[in-house]
Amino acid sequence: MKAITKLAVATLLSMTLFTATATADIKKGQKIYLKKLKARCGFSGSKFAHKHTQDEWEAIFKAGKFSSEVKRICPKAKLKKKYAPDVFDFVYEYASDSGNVPSC
After folding, report:
1. Quick one: how far is CA 87 from the chain centroid?
2. Which of 22, 29, 36, 63 would bridge 87 by S-S if both were Cys, CB 3.0 to 4.6 A apart?
3. What residues make up the domain containing 94?
4. What is the pLDDT of residues 2-55, one digit of tens each?
5. Closest Cα partner for 50 from 103, 1, 7, 93?
């Protein structure tokens, strides 16, 4: 009985850790914006995120047009596909209707 309990707890813990690493991160998205996009865009992350509401950002991301929207807002920007989920989480969290303000 102890072995089954230990196995169940270990499985649950590993699944929890896996899901945490499989999701995008708001702070990581903010760092990516600061390092890769801010200088090319010429404005803060707050101004960038406030270009759309949360629903608009979500619709853009789900439609697969997030990178092209970033390019439209900031023509000099180059956003790698692997960074898109994190930057999306960042702009979604600080969108114009969220009431949140980033520190960048």
Report:
1. 4
2. 29
3. 24-104
4. 766 665 566 665 665 554 445 679 999 999 999 999 999 999 999 999 999 999
5. 93
